[in-house]
Write a structure and sequence with these properties.
The chain is mainly alpha-helical.
Length: 234
């Protein structure tokens, strides 16, 4: 009489079912990683995505701004030094000109035109120019704080999501009492996805902050140099 062993078939079925279960949950696309995550990890992912999008909006805006003002200020300064006099240049200046150096010049010339006494004019003009430069740079430096904040905090927010995802993975292991890759992998993938998003948001923000801070210092120095030469001819 022939006897058939059921145990090997049972073990084979268990392995097959685990493989099928892992294959069904092994879709590690970005959308599925987000959908499988719990509310905490989802919140972290949403925060980092929003911060990254807004950072890129600021980066593009500042890139266009510096490209514009560097060109317009260079053209303005070239025309100014070729003019016959500051007063004639001021009178022929378009009313709708949009340039920080032009605005600085217009504000300074208004003080000169209204001043009846020439005594201490350079001192008074210098203080006014200093305030105007600070005002112009405040507009140019707007949203730098956000870039610095994203650059310094995004990795830690991503790390928080990573720690939380790993905690969930260990909880699933404890509940299921199963250490197979099908149980551990999804939670680990979600955790690493949060870390990747944190770095994705932080790195461009830090690079852009350093780049635009340097550009701001250079442009501020350009305004100061122009103001000193302007005061000297007044």
């Amino acid at each position: 009489m022939t006897h058939f062993s059921v145990k090997p078939f049972k073990m084979e079925a268990d392995i097959t079912s685990q493989a099928v279960g892992f294959a069904s949950s092994a879709d590690f696309s970005i959308v599925n990683l987000f959908l499988r995550a719990d509310i905490i990890v989802k919140s972290v992912i949403v925060i980092l995505i929003v911060a990254s999008i807004y950072s890129w909006a600021i980066i593009i805006d500042k890139y266009r701004l510096f490209k514009k003002i560097n060109k317009s200020s260079e053209e303005f300064e070239d025309k100014f030094w070729k003019s016959k006099s500051a007063e004639s240049f001021y009178n022929n200046l378009p009313a709708n000109i949009d340039d920080p150096m032009a605005d600085l010049f217009k504000g300074s010339m208004q003080i000169v035109m209204k001043s009846r006494s020439k005594s201490n004019l350079a001192e008074r003009l210098g203080s006014v120019i200093e305030v105007n430069i600070e005002k112009q740079m405040n507009v140019i430096d707007k949203n730098y704080t956000f870039l610095a904040t994203v650059g310094s905090t995004a990795p830690f927010i991503g790390l928080f999501g990573t720690v939380w995802g790993i905690m969930n993975s260990f909880q699933q292991i404890a509940i299921s009492r199963n250490t197979s890759l099908a149980i551990v992998a999804p939670g680990i993938a979600e955790a690493l996805f949060a870390t990747a998003l944190g770095l994705l948001a932080a790195i461009p923000a830090v690079v852009a902050f350093n780049k635009f801070s340097s550009d701001s210092r250079k442009y501020s120095q350009k305004l100061e140099n122009f103001s000193k030469r302007f005061i000297s001819i007044i």
